[in-house]
Amino acid sequence: MRTLAISIFAILMASQTAFSGASVDPVQQAISAEEQQIASLDKQKLKDFFAPRKKSKTLQVERSKEWVDAQPKVSGDEQWECLAQALYFEARGESVRGQFAVAEVILNRVDSAKFPNSVCNVIHQGTGKKFACQFTFTCDGNPETIREKKAYARVGKIAKYMLDGAPRDLTDGATYYHTVAVSPRWARKFARTTTIGVHHFYRPHIRVSQN
């Protein structure tokens, strides 16, 4: 198809050259025109690809209780609701900074090939299996009743900001955490990235190949 298009273009250019007397290579001109068009399309694709990432990087969030409480009430879809509930039941007693950190872990898991690829599926992974759930509130047998409305409104805002692209720069890519009150055996297998409030955060060790 490309060869046919170039051939037709070359014939037209050759005819024009015969009348104008100009010294032009019609085949090269056809190829150049097509290459310019492709380059233009590639630039647009790159622009479209990077546009949403630029938008997410500009989202500024202050991780303080006063700032979060001062923001307008939010709502969202099922994924937002799952994240808000997880923050409420797992970290409502934490500082706001600690709640952002727990949200980071959940979203880091969503992005990891080792975990399910949605917020709700990450949070409910193993739910219903004794000692196999990833987040205790989903399998501890206690009813998931939200009684502290103000605390839920706060974590709802945090969930919304994180889903909208707030920076994940608190836990250094952590995909695991536990409270400082316990010392689970699995924690020995991972690298601790930080401690925020009452939680230690971890990620798998990064293995560097030696050539």
Automatic annotation (TrEMBL):
GO terms for molecular function: hydrolase activity. Residues 1-20 form the signal peptide. Residues 93-202 form the Cell wall hydrolase SleB domain. Pfam families: Hydrolase_2 (PF07486). It comes from the Bacteria. Keywords: Hydrolase, Signal. This is Cell Wall Hydrolase.
